[in-house]
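Q: Hi! First time asking for a complex rather than a single chain. Here are the components, and I think there are two in total. Is that enough to go on?
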Amino acid sequence: MKRGHIIALGVFIALILLVSLGITFVGKVPMTTDVRPLGLFYLKNSYFGNYAARSPEVVTSILWDYRGLDTLFETGVFFLAIISALALFRIEKKEEKVKEKGEGFTFIVKDTVRIISVLIVAVSAAIALHGHLTPGGGFQGGSALAVVPLLIIVAFSKYALEERGLTKDTAMIVRSIGLISIIILVLIPLAAGGYLMQNLPVFPSHIFGQLTSGSLVFYNLFEYIAVGAGFTAVFLLLSIPEKVFHEILGGEKE
Amino acid sequence: MIEMFLWALVLVSLMATLVISIYGIVVRPSLIKKLIALTILTDSANLFAIMIGYRLIYPVIPPVLPQRTQEGLSKLIASSVDPLPQALVITAVVIGMAVNVLIAFAIIQIYRIYGTTDVRKIAEVMTDGKAQ
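A: Yes, that's all I need. Here is the structure of the assembled complex.
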């Protein structure tokens, strides 16, 4: 670090402290101690009340019930972003296996990954399926699930996944199944004579005595599948060796 | 008073982080550093949204019913944070992650084609290509 940098940093920190002191003395700090009326409505109605989603987790009931259309279109943006990323890395011809040198990691790394992958799958499924009871949900669980293929790619190789059938194409198919199921879930209430994305009178709030909060648990499950498979496809594409791309791009770069 | 000062300090630091990240996006020539600054910008904007929903009271709990009874509901209303900003932020986080993946893929492809992530050099290479 140069001397000028240290002085600049010091001035910056002093400025922040001074400005916050100034705001404090003027007394214009926005400090809320109450919930806003809209938030209060959600808190009151999430489990009890006439507009209930029957979910003790208020955030999930907002996410997939009260403001469900927001989340639906957000899933659409997610779909488009992943699709465009895949289009950027498109390889037309069939990819050949690049020969690996050496033996890879020691058995310590490989066995640890074997054990931990199973644990991560279990934990991520718990995060996703308990999304209507505890903090968590489809996105969080799906992101946690995508760590498993990433770990396997690092510890073994990309080909270890592809030889067992988890190629980019299968990941895309699984993801499409998840997204299509979400669209079907959105349309079911219309067929039953309700509104788009309606939750409770259409879907049962308890299944076999277990609280499922209507459609929330299904939305979380399919979002979990879609997000996990989408990120798996991304990681598989990112781990294609550079050599393959050099051949395709035709030696434009030395 | 000290509570107010600390809260103001957090707010001002967040604003400073926003300004620094905008500086990074505009001034830094490397595309990778622009992407890093962009992620800092989205994260601090999300933190702002979360802080709007925060309540400055002492026993503050997340918006999850502690017990599924009327007592639990009154406890929730008395001390829970605002759930709406959290629900908006979780969608923003996921969209941000997908868009970051897209930008990262584009940067990797640009590096493969031009051999650099410096915007000035890329502009040079592109204008040279036009002249030929």
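A: Chain A touches chain B through 62 residues (CB under 8 Å). Let me know if you'd like any chain examined more closely.
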